[in-house]
Amino acid sequence: MNFTKFKKSLIAGVMGFSLIGGFVASPDYTTPATTTAKTLNTVTLVSPTDGDTASFKYKGETIKVRFLLVDTPETKHPSKGVQPWGKEASNYTKKKLKNAKKIQLDFDQAGYKGDKYGRKLAYVYVDGKDLNLQLVRKGYARVAYIYAPNTKNKAKYLNAQAKAKKEKLRIWSKKGYVTSSGFNTTKKETTTKKPSKTKTYKNCTELRKDYPNGVKKGHKAYQAKMDRDKDGWACER
């Protein structure tokens, strides 16, 4: 083999190894080639809500968007309170969205129809990078709510989740915390101090002085009249 042929063979071999072995930066977080300009919708940020929800301005209308196929721990749930890694996930999403030069949404097949809460469902791209995927890969979110026909990123997200789990990143650092139905945490603490055993409360204002987060059904201070939404918690915030 002459020098010219050897050189060409060597270059081809290095390129092949780069694609397989990973010398080239991983394209996991970038906008996939199959996601064309036709499927991406440019929006402007109105306000981030938490790790997997935010409001955007789209075609002159403010829409609330739930990020497709991902679930981050709660930060504002009335009964679950603030779950481990919830604030961190929320802060990560807020920082990404607020610092973005360009935000785009991909509603997949039917995400614009929305869910039962009136939220649109979308993959969120920040400066060309898949924010949903970043949340999963960095251990801020689990892959969840996989419902046809909005499933085109399922395999990619599950692969990222497997890596985060193997590396025990954030939500995966706590054994048994992530479950198939959410995050395994007990309900918020109901006691911050010990009030008199015989003390009764006329209203939620009085009760919250002793129990800032309210009380659950079965607690001595619980009264059905203070549980207006009948969810088993009285005077929850």
UniProtKB/TrEMBL annotation:
Residues 1-25 form the signal peptide. Keywords: Endonuclease, Hydrolase, Nuclease, Signal. The keyword Oxidoreductase does not apply. Pfam families: Excalibur, SNase. It comes from the Bacteria. InterPro entries: Excalibur_Ca-bd_domain, SNase_OB-fold_sf, Staphylococal_nuclease_OB-fold, Thermonucl_AS. The keyword Hydrolase applies. Gene3D superfamilies: 2.40.50.90. Residues 50-174 form the TNase-like domain. PROSITE patterns: TNASE_2 (PS01284), TNASE_3 (PS50830). This is Thermonuclease family protein.
